[in-house]
Each structure stands twice: as C-alpha cells, then as structure tokens.
Write a structure and sequence with these properties.
35% helix, single chain, globular, five-stranded mixed β-sheet, 152 residues, alpha/beta
Length: 152
C-alpha cells in the first residue's frame, strides 16, 4: 500500500524579477445563479497596485468563469498601464490556454498557483456580489492575508 503524498501548503510570493504579478480567481454563487471574479495587481515587492472584483451571470463551466477572471485581470493591468506581467491562476488548463492571448505585454509569464497562494484574489471573487461588502472584506480578510504574506 502506497503512503499518501504530502504537499506543503504554498503561499503567495513576490516575483524574482521587477515584474507586476496579477492573481485572479473565480467563485460560484449557485443559489443566485451568478459568478464572481477577483483580481489583484502587486509589484515585485508585494505592494498592491490595483484590485477589482465583478459579478457575472452564471456561465456554463468553471473553466469559462476562470478564463473570464483572467480577462478581467488583464483589463485591470492594461488600464493601470502595466507592461511587464506575471499572471497566476489556480486553474492550470486555463492558465496554459490563455498564455497565447497575452501578446499585448512586452514581457509576460502565466503560471499555475494553488488557491492557498492566491487567497486575496479568491476573497475578492467570493465577495464580488456587493461593492459595499467587498470594501469591508478587503479591509478585514484580504488585508490580513496581505499582511501575513509579507512576513512569510
């Protein structure tokens, strides 16, 4: 009998280069037939540049809403004037598929990351239903995650 494989929990990390990191995630609100997307841009030191969240009508597949989350984040990056970007998503199939869509950026990298290292974008997506609630959530939950990540 084979022993279970243990994977240590991953945490968000800064980029090793002078690149902006975009973390994106999506959430499903089944009871309301809606989806939420969240995105956060951080510089190579981990400082927040810009963040956002939005709700979408329910899409057919999780992959579809994850792709929309990446597109939402890319729009956020373009509006912020970012040209050097790493995109992190916790959906590996979509991360691989979307790589070819990033020709707008002079330098880019798309990587898969586990939810545990993508928590701020996840919190933003989970709270995309209410812009009032998201401000309180960012201050309470996401800010504590951001602060904890800076000391890891």
């Amino acid at each position: 009998m084979q022993a279970p494989t243990f994977r240590p929990r991953e945490h968000w990390s800064t980029s090793t280069q002078s690149l902006t990191k975009l973390n994106v995630d999506a959430a499903c609100f089944k009871d309301q037939n809606m989806m939420g997307v969240g995105a956060i841009l951080r510089d190579h030191m981990g400082h927040t540049i810009k963040w956002g969240a939005a709700t979408l009508q329910r899409l057919r597949t999780a992959e579809e809403v994850e792709a929309r989350a990446i597109l939402f984040g890319l729009d956020l990056a373009m509006h912020a004037g970012i040209t050097d970007l790493i995109v992190e998503s916790d959906n590996q199939a979509i991360a691989n598929h979307i790589k070819r869509k990033l020709q707008t950026f002079r330098l880019f990298k798309v990587v898969f990351t586990r939810r545990s290292s993508n928590m701020v974008a996840h919190i933003l997506a989970r709270n995309a239903q209410s812009t009032t609630r998201i401000h309180f959530t960012l201050l309470k939950q996401a800010q504590s995650v951001l602060n904890a990540e800076m000391f890891l």
